[in-house]
Structures are given as C-alpha cells and as structure tokens.
C-alpha cells in the first residue's frame, strides 16, 4: 500500500496502514508471533514499516520498524554472544566460527530455544530491515548491523559455486544444500539498498552475483521467462514477489540510464504481463498463485499480495522514459503510443488493494475474537517444506572470460557465475565509489559492455509492453542437483 502511494504520489493508505500496524502490535508484542515465531515474520513488519516511513515521513512508522528490528537483533548472533558462549533466548551452543569464519551476523530461523538453525530467509530479512533503517535514519548502528550480516551471508551462506543456500546449523556448522528464489530475492533487495547506502562497490558486486544467479536460473522460470518455481515446493508460487522486489530496489535507486537497467525493466515487464494475462480472468481483480496460469477464482491473501507486487512494480516503469541507449527494434516503444495507460495499471492495483484491505481487516477482527475467547497461544501457520525438490542450476550461461577476477572496479551485467572467494570482514576497508555509475566506456570485468548486452538481449526480445511480448529465453540446465528442503 505504501509503495503504491509512493508510485502514484499520494497518501491514500497512510491512515489505514497506521491502524493495521497498531492492531498487529497489539496482537503480537514486538511483532513476535506466539510462543514459537519465525524471525522473518517479525522482520517483515519492520521492512514494511521502514518502507512506509520513507514514503510518509511519519515517526510512528519508524517506531514500528525499530521495534521489529529489535526483535530481529535479539536473535541475531554478535561477537559478545560468541565469546561468552551464551545466547539470550536460546538454550543451544553455537560455534564461534565455521571454517575459521565468524558466525556473527547470522539470524536464527525461529524463537524456539532449542533450535540452532540460522537461515537465509531470516538473515536476509534482517539485512534488509537494517539497510532500510540505515537509509532513512543515517544511524550508523543500522549500517553496521547490515554490514556485519552481509559479511556473514557471503562467508557462510553460499556453497562452493557461490549459490545462496537455505541456512546453516549453528551448533554443528552443517549447511542445508537447498536453494530457493525467495531467499535470493530478499538478499537482492537487501544488497541493493545497502550498496546504495554505503556506495560500497564490493557489496554492489555481491548484488550482481545474486542477480545473475536468480534471473538466469532456468529452473526458476518457465520456458518463456515467467517466474514459475516447481509447485512441489510449499508456497513456491508465492516467491515471485521477492524476486520482483529485489530487482525493483535496484531499479528505483539507480536512475542513470544503463543496459542493465533496461534489461531489468524488460524482465519486470514480462512478469507484469504474465500476471495480467495468466493469473486472473479478464476484467477480474482476483489473482491466482501461478503467473503462468490458470487463473484462480477464490480470493487468497497470499496470491493477491504476490500479484500486486508485480503490478505496483510496473508503475515506475511506465512513468520512466528510459529506453535502450541504441534505438533498435527490441527497444520499448514510446510511452505515449506503445505502453498501456498508467491509470489503467493504477486502477487494477486499487481494485486488488481494496480486496486485500477488506481481508486484512477481517483477519484482524477474527484474531481479536479468538483472543477474547482465551485462545492465548495464537500462532500463524508455520509452513514446513516436506518434499525434496530437484533444483538444477544452469551451467550454459555465457561462458565468457572464465579466468576473470571476481572483484572488479566496475559493475557488470549478468554473465557466467563467478568463482567465489573469501570476503573481507565487515570492519575492513572496502573500496567506495559511486554505486553503479555508467558510461559509454564502462566494462564489466574484461568483457566490453556491448558484448554482454548483446548476450542478454538475445534472451529478451522484443522488449515491449504488449500482449504479444516475447519474454527472455533461458538456457536449459546441464545437470540436475538433488537438494533437500528445510526452508
């Protein structure tokens, strides 16, 4: 709602959001849900409140964001915890280091006192909440917290190929080998915000690494480029919102024309068209879970939120005149002739938000009634993945410049996955240049920009806001990798 107001330059939902946050905190102190709460749930309130504070500049939203962030901080490892061997709220022994790398900065999956699992969903949520607060308040404590968590993610939440994993058992240092796009999307959003805040080029490189592994993963997309994860994974069809938000965070913070920005614009356009064409009946405001279809006539809060994320993300794209720097047939058409009316998009979002607002109000009312009837242990449903999906990572993506150094002095457009190397600690000195500055002579690695752009444009043609748009093509995976789900 706040992001819709920001995109349409209004404050229509401010009062309603203030009401929702007040009710949510009254139901769950500090936004922790019940006796056992997943930390990403609490931090989701902080992320939403931080976004609202940025849009409305109302200190009430900042207060809510800080309370949720404090809940996340209580379950995020720090040096004092690791040195003393004691962790508040936890009855587990956590390794101070794993593979000689410090565990500080990781966030526990849930509040269960005997659970030692530090997972990516919670850690990425804490990184994002910290980065957003650092962006809005300029307070170094949020920046420092985000930097420490960023170091933890890069050191301990990736495998030897650099793929983002689901988490690590802090008591035995064993990684889960599962990989999920929701994790990557959340991490992308946090890295995009943090790179913008710090102007730190190393963090920008890490963002690009996650970006390329996400949008070029054929197993997370349909054959025609629509986000479409195997439904064997619980809630898999609701991950699109995280990927969209991660890309939007970069797009909205980097307005300088660039080939990468144009590519992201086209990618988001593919998802927008998919939601309108495949996830709903024509003229309906109820959206299904899958963006590849078929439509779903029964209203679902999860489905609606997932779809509205893609629709809201499209509003800045239609307001933005940026197109490819070289006029080609694959460039987007002029907004006045080739793009749908921005009012139509906003109207569709308003319709969806109306349903969403009514449902949220009803849910809050029902929860209050349940509490009044002495149901004191109200808990949100904890979806546990019980299947073991096969995740295949594409190995056929642009094998250019295999030997290039991982850290470069310029940003890059997605190409072949880099070889991971150990990251400097959060307190070490890192290069700090203008984040993602572009020029006609910029090179990504040692490969000329125009070569990489050509490779990407081959996957995205023609980039037009039309029903007959052809989305990006994705390489097929070379070999399957069996993983075990624990998200």
UniProtKB/TrEMBL annotation:
A biological process (GO) of this protein is:
carbohydrate metabolic process
* Segments traversing the membrane: 342-367
Show the InterPro entries listed in the entry. 6-hairpin_glycosidase_sf (IPR008928), Glyco_hydro_76 (IPR005198), MUG_Protein (IPR053169), TM_ErbB1 (IPR049328)
Any GO molecular function: ATP binding
Q: Glycosyltransferase: present as a keyword of the record?
A: no
Q: Which UniProt keywords apply?
A: ATP-binding, Membrane, Nucleotide-binding, Phosphoprotein, Transmembrane, Transmembrane helix
User: Where are the stretches annotated Disordered?
Assistant: 411-442, 463-487
Q: Where is the composition biased (Polar residues)?
A: 422-442, 478-487
Domain Epidermal growth factor receptor-like transmembrane-juxtamembrane segment, by residue range, is 345-373
> By its UniProt entry, which Pfam families does this protein fall under?
Glyco_hydro_76, TM_ErbB1
Q: What is the official name of this protein in its record?
A: Epidermal growth factor receptor-like transmembrane-juxtamembrane segment domain-containing protein
Source organism per UniProt: Paramarasmius palmivorus
